Amino acid sequence: MRRIITATVQNKSGVLNRVTGLLQRRQFNIESISVGPTEVEGISKMTLVVEVEDKQKLEQLTKQLNKQIDILKVSDITDKAIVSRELALIKVVSSGQLRSEIKDIIEPFRASVIDVSKDSLAVQVTGKPEKVEALIELLRPYGIKELARTGVTAFLRGNKPQVAELPSYSLL
Amino acid sequence: MKVEAKPAFTSIEESKTGADLLIEALLQEGVETIFGYPGGAVLPIYDAIYRAKDRIKHVLFRHEQGSIHAAEGYARITGKPGVVLATSGPGATNLITGIADAMIDSLPLVVFTGQVARSVIGTDAFQEADVIGITTPITKHNYQVQHVQDLPRIIKEAFHIASTGRPGPVVIDIPKDISAENVYEEAFETDFDLPGYHPNTKPNPLQINKLVDSLTKAKKPVILAGAGVLHGKASEELIQFVERYQIPVTTTLLGLGSFPGDHKLSLGMAGMHGTYTANMALYECDLLVNFGARFDDRLTGNLKHFAPNAKVAHVDIDPAEIGKNVTTHIPIVADVKEAIRELLHHEFDMNLHYQWSNQLEENKKHFPLWYNDSNEEISPQWLISQIHRASNGEAIVTTDVGQHQMWAAQYYSFSKPNHWVTSGGLGTMGFGFPAAIGAQLAAPESQVIAIVGDGGFQMTLQELSILQERNLPVKIIIVNNGALGMVRQWQEKFYEHRYSESLFPIQPDFVKLADSYDIKGMKISTQEELQQVLPKVLAFPGPVVMDCRVVQTENVYPMIAPGKGLHEMIGVKP
């Protein structure tokens, strides 16, 4: 099962290495990881997307992370009411006549063109991983020259409804 | 032989360095002994040791591995962190086995490694190794000191982390320019705040109630006592608790001594080479109460057949151990001592389970440990029994890993805590002898016996120098079967007697070897000789190396073959 785990960590040298090393030696597969500073100085937040076999393995993962001295808090927020976003940069092959066609495709995704060259177009898209995935698939037939994704970052919503957010059918 | 080193200069400058801060911090922590080995990157620290030699003792080992195993032995006996010091690069990498060993067996260590100067870190400088990178997976925590003013605080943190919660090794990597740096301040801030580290020691009352409830309902209860009972100094409480409710107790390999082996309620050690009674009790019980054991695979055998009908309660100070291997119904994250005290506060009735205790008594009677005895030759199990007898079961015993370790565990019935020093989780050959040095330094008045294999002893025997140097009366008993016994046993059982590289074609003359270190050595080949010599050896005021030639073909039984369940023991009866 795919889980979104957040870890609040002390921003000390080697802390990212501690986390990835721990997951690697305990045979957890990291799908994506994103790290950045938080509102508190000296504290960073990591968002990990991991693939785990079962609940027991998941429990191990959070417990082992919690044991790290530099990790302050670990939460599995997969089933909580959260906002999660990812950013992707996609360089698509595009000659002059295809440009407007591609622009039409990306428009409903609220993606934007951030660079244009003679034979390519760079698109920036932000959203849930599913939405990013959908856009990539739509652009694939045009030929993707280069793709870079940040990985998911997420946190809990301000208002926490009792029931987890239903999967959204909107692309937005 | 004593070599007196003459200092080149008689006057020492009066300025304080980072290294002096280090020594002061160690003295603050009450450290008496440093286990170490010098080298380029720690020269400033050794200079500070020279200056402080009246206040702190440094024991010079002959290999860094020896120093760290000795520190482990010291930590195991005293419960205090063992302090190790080695230089950068090869000095630090020679410590790796010991650090990993201390990690898996939860022994508190504070390990100082030298590092190249900050200006050349990352340039593949002479004797540079990425100690932080290498030790991150095998330490409870590690530090590389970046500013000299942080050093006192980091050392204080390190001792705190190493010795609280689940104990473990902490590494502090110190660049040479930091230990050499002059400091002019009187003192630095040592208050620390570790917001990510709060080991929980108090048991949750709800879970304790659940356990009490399960105990009152249990018909076939059994207690598993692990090393957590020793770390938590909870043996007395454990004895009081089980005597009040008459619950049978089995221990893990590392938990030996946490409950007296000769107690009427003791079932002996459980696990791969545990007793029939202990393993069957774990297999058949309806309530398993684990105090401070981590359900290691050598204990559980095939998890499918481990305590299949039992409700499992697990008391552990490390939450990550609960539910890791065995599904746990009553999780109690706590210090074992506090948990048992809490249980003792509850007065409750247990149905006295006569049927269960009768069944266990019957098992004990019909399936005791057994071995082939001969009249002439020394069988290794008999040897251990003799050592037990001659030392009144009161010695501190250390071992390596393998057959001799299992026989020592089976036949040296430990009646008191902290008398057993062995490498359990990592299974480190060469551990026993240096660990005995550390144990003897920790308990100078105690009888310390290193029961070692002929293979393991040859991995760290260079430390023989220290016995004379420090006047340590360690008795080394080599259980010499001319083979890597456990490897040979597995090759016999599982590889159709193909003894690939497990028999030693050539052995050193251990008597001459001892002699060359000015230590009394002897070779013993018959039972008669042994009975004559052993009491004298143990009473001898100095160190002795006893090369005991034992039957090579003996196997350790009973045995749970890999992948098998607790109830599938082989070699239960002759």
From TrEMBL, chain A:
UniProt enzyme class: transferase
Domain ACT: 4-79
Catalytic activity from the UniProt record: 2 pyruvate + H(+) = (2S)-2-acetolactate + CO2
Entry keywords, A to Z: Amino-acid biosynthesis, Branched-chain amino acid biosynthesis, Transferase
Gene3D superfamilies tied to this protein: 3.30.70.260, ACT-like. Chain A, domain 2
GO terms under biological process: isoleucine biosynthetic process; L-valine biosynthetic process
MF GO annotations: acetolactate synthase activity; acetolactate synthase regulator activity
Cellular component terms per the entry's GO annotation: cytosol
InterPro entries the UniProt entry points to: Acetalactate_synth_ssu, Acetolactate_synth/TF_NikR_C, Acetolactate_synth_ssu_C, ACT-like_dom_sf, ACT_dom, AHAS_ACT, AHAS_small-like_ACT
Pfam families the record matches: ACT_AHAS_ss, ALS_ss_C
Subunit note: Dimer of large and small chains.
Family statement: Belongs to the acetolactate synthase small subunit family.
Name under which the protein is recorded: Acetolactate synthase small subunit
Organism annotation: Pseudoneobacillus rhizosphaerae
Lineage: Bacteria, Bacillati, Bacillota, Bacilli, Bacillales
Gene from which this protein is expressed: ilvH
TrEMBL record, chain B:
Cofactor note text: Binds 1 thiamine pyrophosphate per subunit.
Keyword presence, Metal-binding: yes
Keywords: Amino-acid biosynthesis, Branched-chain amino acid biosynthesis, FAD, Flavoprotein, Magnesium, Metal-binding, Thiamine pyrophosphate, Transferase
Cellular component annotations (GO), alphabetically ordered: acetolactate synthase complex
Entry cofactors: thiamine diphosphate; Mg(2+)
Record CDD domains: TPP_AHAS (cd02015), TPP_PYR_POX_like (cd07035)
Domain of life: Bacteria
Catalytic reaction equation(s): 2 pyruvate + H(+) = (2S)-2-acetolactate + CO2
Domain Thiamine pyrophosphate enzyme N-terminal TPP-binding residues, every copy: 17-132
Thiamine pyrophosphate enzyme TPP-binding domain sequence ranges: 400-548
Residues covered by the Thiamine pyrophosphate enzyme central domain: 208-343
Family: Belongs to the TPP enzyme family.
Protein name (Swiss-Prot/TrEMBL): Acetolactate synthase
